[in-house]
Amino acid sequence: MKKLVSGKSYGFLVCALGALVLLGACKQIVTETVEKIVTVYPGQITKAGHAAGDILLDDGSWILKANVASLNTAALGGRKAVGVLAFERGGKPYCVGLQIEQSRKWASDSGQGFDKDISALVWKGDAQGGSESLAALKSEVTDYDILCPYHAFQAAEQYGADISYKSSPTAGTWYLPSIWELIQVNGEKAAINDAFAKLNEIDNTSYPDDTVYGNSYWSSSEMPVVAAAWACDLAGDGPIPGLKSQNLDVLVMRSFDY
Hints:
By secondary structure, the protein is an alpha+beta fold.
């Protein structure tokens, strides 16, 4: 009789099944506390006149949410949209990028970071941001640039090569958001979707994505479980666990100025 699973593979499967059980437990715990966490660290926008769903343009000006519905090519006047306002932290606006990178792994199962515990990236239920996540990852692994095993991080790092903001290229300034940041996006997805849809209506080549709704996105936040990281399902489930080698989508983020 043929042996269906080798000893090594069997051991991996047992570990994987155990991880899935823990993933479910972690998801339940976090789902129960997300409301409390968002209340403590709300990320609300305090700048007068601004709101989630505002569109930031490449010259530093804004199309306010109240004017998004009537936005047209003439109103843009040759300016390009750079991002959509999602939340505020420390008085600075944080915007999501306008193109979704599809089907990326957090880490390939051949990468050092797949089953490595990177403590600086483990979400502790606070308002931890993702802007320093790439540096934290690179400090713990030596294979970041080898055979692209960290696709989600690399997609965020490369985003913006053809995008300018106040005449400066934005490549390398975008990052993979933390799970707290994606929770903020999830809470404002209706306004963000309105902005995406309007930009897509105006120019579906420059702005090919008409919604962030319905996709699951990687965060830069690890879970306290081997080979697992947090993702966020913007179709309604909110924070969800994910195996790092899963293919999920990437929504990038960066801070700007008002």
